Amino acid sequence: MEVRHPSWTQKKVTDILRDNNTALCVSDTAGRYPYIEEDTATFIYIRLHGSKKLYASEYSEEELQTYARKIRNWSKDTYLYFDNDYEGYAIKNAKRMKEILGLA
After folding, report:
1. Sign of CA dihedral 72, 25, 92, 56
2. What is the per-residue pLDDT across 36-50, written as a single tens digit (0 to 9) for each?
3. CA 32 to CA 74: how far, in whole Å?
């Protein structure tokens, strides 16, 4: 579930999602929509749309390293999607993330 409104940040919502093993998407939208890191399922779902400009900013090495640490700490199957493709950064960032995580 990728949220677009602050009303979804309530504990009641995360409890319902957790009870139904539905992942609350960790979604970076350059500040446009709520950023929530709540572990609500047996897996983690991340969508990175751009940290500075929605759909069009490249993630820095530091940002990628930070997400890699989070992924390792969660110790769960993680589905990570880069949607910062307007300027073509998604493929570059995905390849680098694979290297960081030792998947390349």
Report:
1. negative
2. 999 999 999 999 999
3. 25
The predicted-structure confidence for 93-102, as pLDDT tens digits, reads as follows 999 999 999 9
Which CATH number is correct for 6-100, 3.20.20.410, 1.10.530.10, 3.40.50.1220, 3.40.50.2000? 3.20.20.410
Q: Which residues contact 99 (CB under 8 A, 6 or more apart)?
A: none
Q: Give residue limits of the domains in the chain.
A: 6-100
Give the closest residue to 60 by CA, choosing from 31, 35, 84.
84
Say what the pTM is. 0.92
| The pair of three-digit structure tokens given for residue 59, joined into one six-digit string | 């993630």
Strand, coil or helix: what is 28?
A: strand
Q: How far is CA 42 from CA 24, 38, 62, 77, in A?
A: 11, 12, 27, 8
